[in-house]
Write a structure and sequence with these properties.
This protein is an alpha/beta fold. The protein has eleven helices and ten strands. Strand 3 and strand 4 form a beta hairpin. It binds pyridoxal-5'-phosphate (PLP).
Length: 361
């Protein structure tokens, strides 16, 4: 195990690391990867874990997903080789077909860039839009990786508030005043369904977000890794791009990590919705950036057409119902604790809890 050095500590060594390494730090991993817990031997351990459906045994990858990969390994030796830098054409075609079939999005394989996880997609989207010194709008509360990537790129995170009283909708007045007062903002990151809020935005709210982005000509990075993970009877998931008039670029990030319970497979993607008839500069930038890493594991890319074309609707419905049941149980239990007020989620795998300090005695 390496000793963890904090930013700007050099441990007395003559060799220094780069400023990029010094400004890159993943707060979640800094805790969970080095955590050593000694459990009370007389009690069972209840892991509250992190946003990984699989590793703590809560949900397993379904057999139609694992079998697709076994199949590739057994019969497709070409899948051991390199793919084009934006990903294999068959996998990109499978992704564009999936969004067209599920949500009516007009996409072709040319609009898809395969990345190393949705994390890789987010990194490429932030880096294609923001130069060092530029700013990016990030949600608060929000997934901590956004700030990690922005810091690593020497871009400045500017946080905009989500409103817990309105099911975590974006405070659009606050966003507008940030946009009015800064010329350095080059991208607006919107996460729907949300980690950590469990919110799912209505069509009307998403439309208002798009209007604002068009007024100030700010491209949107839509983190939609929880695509389709919404509770029965609540707001359905609507891809932001499906209602965009494409007056500003919308870069949608997704992947199979959460939806198919295989976060370790590291396959994600960017869907590029760029202004028609413009120079398509963002698309070209993404293609260039994709040349750094050459996408995701090619075995998983080769398994993707089989995974995405399987009739998985019954399995997805049962997963969503299972998460909703768990959420209802946790809501009920936490509501009975004095000082805790859980905010009901509508999707994804998270719930925020508001706390009040109670002075006893
Ligand atoms: C898990 C998660 C990701 C990262 O997905 P990977 O495909 O595992 O890299 C991105 N955004 C959010 C909001 C997440 O919760």
């Amino acid at each position: 195990m390496f000793k963890t050095l904090h930013n700007n500590e050099d441990g007395g060594c003559l060799i220094k690391v780069s400023s990029k390494a010094c400004t890159t730090s993943n707060p979640i991993r800094n805790i969970v990867d080095v955590m050593k817990l000694e459990a009370n031997p007389s009690k069972p351990v209840l892991s509250l874990a992190l946003g990984d459906p699989t590793v703590f045994g809560n949900m397993d990858a379904p057999s139609f997903v694992t079998e697709a990969l076994i199949n590739v390994i057994q019969i497709n030796p070409k899948a051991n080789g390199y793919a084009p830098q934006i990903g294999s054409p068959l996998a990109r075609q499978a992704i564009s077909n999936y969004y067209t079939k599920q949500y009516g999005l007009k996409l072709s394989e040319q609009d898809v860039v395969i990345t190393s996880g949705c994390s890789g997609a987010l990194q490429m989207c932030i880096e294609v839009l923001c130069s060092p010194g530029d700013s990016i709008l990030l949600p608060q509360p929000g997934f901590s990786l956004y700030k990690t990537i922005a810091d690593s790129n020497h871009s400045t995170p500017i946080f905009y508030p989500l409103n817990p009283k309105r099911e975590w909708e974006i405070d659009l007045e606050a966003v507008e005043s940030l946009l009015k007062n800064s010329t350095s903002i080059k991208a607006w990151l919107i996460n729907n369904p949300s980690n950590p809020c469990g919110s799912v935005y209505s069509k009307q709210h998403l439309t208002e977000c798009l209007k604002l982005s068009q007024k100030y000509r700010i491209p949107i990075i839509a983190d939609e890794i929880y695509e389709g993970m919404t509770f029965p009877g609540k707001n359905p998931f609507i891809p932001l791009a499906s209602i965009s008039e494409c007056k500003v670029p919308v870069l949608s990030c997704g992947g199979i990590a959460k939806r198919f319970c295989v976060p370790g497979w590291r396959l994600g993607w960017i869907l590029v919705h760029e202004v028609a008839n413009e120079l398509q500069v963002v698309r070209k930038g993404l293609v260039d950036l994709a040349g750094l890493i050459l996408g995701a594991n090619t075995l998983v890319q080769a398994a993707l057409p089989q995974i995405l074309s399987a009739d998985s609707s019954a399995w997805h419905a049962s997963v969503n119902a299972h998460i909703q049941e768990n959420a209802q149980l946790v809501l009920k239990l936490l509501n009975s604790v004095p000082g805790l007020t859980p905010i009901p989620p509508q999707g994804a795998m998270y719930m925020m809890v508001s706390t009040r300090i109670i002075v006893l005695g």
